[in-house]
């Protein structure tokens, strides 16, 4: 039978998404990367080739549960060794959920330089629509590689930290304009364009929104058009109406809107929220055009919904009601995870969870140690073990107010249930909602606030939980958890040839 899989090649290139030319990293020459599509229940086979001139890579399928396929989660240092330049690795996993997900490099800051693309898994929807539009990414956008920005350590709140760079611009669907007017900067080509979405009056559209920011939160809206929100991450929800939706890095919302206004042109907006972490953006003019068939080719002159304020957090807790009900069982273990800072030997602050910062060793991924029976894990691996007799884990993720920063936490291998989310200190009196609470794979902990999550321990493997702000993840704001370790060697066994050869090739590359 022919190979029906996907081929992704990781490449260095130069592109100008907003008309400002820069070095980027892309899949198959395009930004964002090619669309991966499947039907609910399909097996996906994806061949990833590393064509980078230097550096390893690995691709993570954000939101995909990887039930029984932990080895394909794509996390270098946890589930695999990096794919060495010139080498290939084939990922195989089932599309066991449906909705909108995405894939991105999980090697350091490669995602920020352009290595991501959408995954669409077709399945039932909780509202009717006539036409499905293409997936739409929103992002902040930098005019230099994140790897260059990263080493420019700066001060933040009076402390020496790695860069929390201010973005000069943002993109909607991988494109935007950028003014070159007074600069003689040869990289500023002025060729940027607004994205355009064409609709027909009277029709209903489904739009898959994906947030790929390096930092901060963005609100999406369409002037004059109400949004009906039908899914949060890969979880269908009871539809609700909104003027805008806020997305943290890693989150997705599926929305339906009706082209029910006068034939004309309307702005679609991705509005950067400076209320999050106090960061600013140089140019908060991230817009695309919604053009009705029969309208002029000019730019819209519409105004933003007046209800949209500058604020931070997730969509309202009460709005995110899963359509397929699921209650949460009693905790087998409950752990407090306090978010703080930690001063490292490289003389900058790192983020820490319970005073520990995650350090991983790319040559010795956790799964390899388990497979080789060397499972006394180094402390730096920041591993929490979930023994085989456990079914429900509760984590109280708390910012004690010293740092007072918002973080979108993402859990690998699971959708989690949000038992509580609020400001101030979590106390034993805080009410936990176990009855069909919001469920998703990325959720926000507020600055001086808490996020209480629960997840079912039904997926053996080594998994990460981390902040999805790329700078913060690189500043070690992550932990690993090893779930039902005794069942992991059997999983690795079934793929051991690929697994070992990826590591062997990486070692050869690394040592040369
Ligand atoms: Cu979207 Cu661990 O990442």
UniProtKB/TrEMBL annotation:
Q: Which one Pfam family would you cite for this protein?
A: Cu-oxidase
From what superkingdom does this record's organism come? Eukaryota
Keywords, ordered alphabetically: Copper, Glycoprotein, Metal-binding, Oxidoreductase, Repeat, Signal
Q: Give start and end of each Plastocyanin-like domain.
A: 10-124, 135-294, 367-485
> GO molecular function terms here?
copper ion binding; oxidoreductase activity
Which InterPro entries has this protein been placed in? Cu-oxidase-like_N, Cu-oxidase_2nd, Cu-oxidase_C, Cu-oxidase_fam, Cupredoxin
Family, per the entry? Belongs to the multicopper oxidase family.
Which PANTHER family does this chain map to? MULTI-COPPER OXIDASE, OXIDOREDUCTASE TPCJ
Q: What is this protein called?
A: Laccase
Q: Which organism is it from?
A: Penicillium vulpinum
């Amino acid at each position: 039978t022919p190979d029906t899989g996907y081929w992704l090649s990781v490449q260095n290139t130069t592109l100008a998404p907003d008309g400002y030319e820069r070095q980027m990293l892309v899949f198959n020459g395009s930004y964002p990367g090619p669309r991966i599509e499947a039907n609910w229940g399909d097996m996906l086979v994806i061949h990833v080739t590393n064509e980078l001139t230097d550096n390893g890579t690995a691709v993570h399928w954000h939101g995909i549960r990887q039930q029984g396929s932990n080895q394909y989660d794509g996390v270098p240092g946890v589930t695999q060794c990096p794919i060495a330049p010139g080498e290939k690795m084939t990922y195989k996993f089932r599309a066991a959920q449906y909705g909108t997900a995405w894939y991105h490099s999980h090697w350091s800051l490669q995602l920020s330089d352009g290595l991501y693309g959408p995954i669409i898994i077709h399945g039932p929807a909780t509202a009717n629509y006539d036409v499905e539009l293409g997936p739409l990414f929103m992002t902040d956008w930098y005019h230099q590689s994140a790897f260059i920005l990263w080493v420019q350590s700066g001060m933040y709140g009076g402390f020496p930290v790695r860069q929390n760079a201010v973005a000069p611009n943002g993109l909607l669907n991988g494109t935007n304009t950028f003014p070159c007017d007074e600069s003689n900067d040869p990289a500023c080509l002025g060729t940027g364009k607004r994205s355009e979405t064409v609709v027909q009056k009277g029709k209903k559209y489904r739009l898959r929104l994906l947030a790929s920011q390096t930092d901060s939160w963005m609100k999406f809206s369409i002037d004059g058009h109400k949004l009906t929100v039908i899914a949060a991450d890969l979880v269908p929800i009871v539809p609700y109406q909104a003027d805008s939706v806020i997305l943290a890095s890693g989150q997705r919302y599926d929305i339906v809107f009706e082209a029910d206004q006068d034939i004309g042109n309307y702005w679609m907006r991705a509005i950067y929220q400076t209320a999050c972490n106090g960061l600013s953006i140089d140019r908060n003019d991230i817009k695309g055009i919604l053009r009705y068939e029969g309208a002029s080719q000019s730019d819209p002159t519409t105004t933003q919904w007046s209800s949209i304020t500058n604020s931070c957090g997730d969509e309202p807790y009460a709005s995110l009601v899963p359509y397929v009900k699921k209650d949460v069982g009693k905790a087998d273990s409950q752990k407090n995870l306090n978010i703080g800072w930690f001063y490292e030997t490289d003389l900058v602050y790192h983020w820490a969870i319970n005073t520990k910062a995650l350090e991983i060793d790319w040559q010795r991924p956790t799964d390899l140690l388990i497979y080789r029976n060397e499972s006394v894990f180094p402390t730096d691996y920041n591993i929490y073990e979930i023994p085989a007799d456990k079914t429900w884990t509760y984590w109280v993720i708390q910012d004690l107010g010293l740092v007072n920063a918002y973080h979108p936490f993402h859990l690998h291998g699971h959708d989690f249930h949000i038992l509580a989310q609020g400001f101030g200190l979590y106390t034993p009196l805080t009410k936990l909602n176990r009855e069909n609470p919001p469920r998703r794979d990325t959720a926000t902990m507020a600055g001086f606030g808490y996020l209480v999550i629960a997840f079912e321990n039904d997926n053996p493997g080594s998994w990460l939980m981390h902040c999805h702000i790329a700078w913060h993840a690189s500043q070690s704001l992550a932990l690993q958890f090893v779930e039902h370790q005794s069942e992991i060697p059997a999983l690795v066994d079934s793929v051991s040839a690929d697994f070992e050869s990826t590591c062997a090739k990486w070692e050869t590359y690394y040592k040369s």
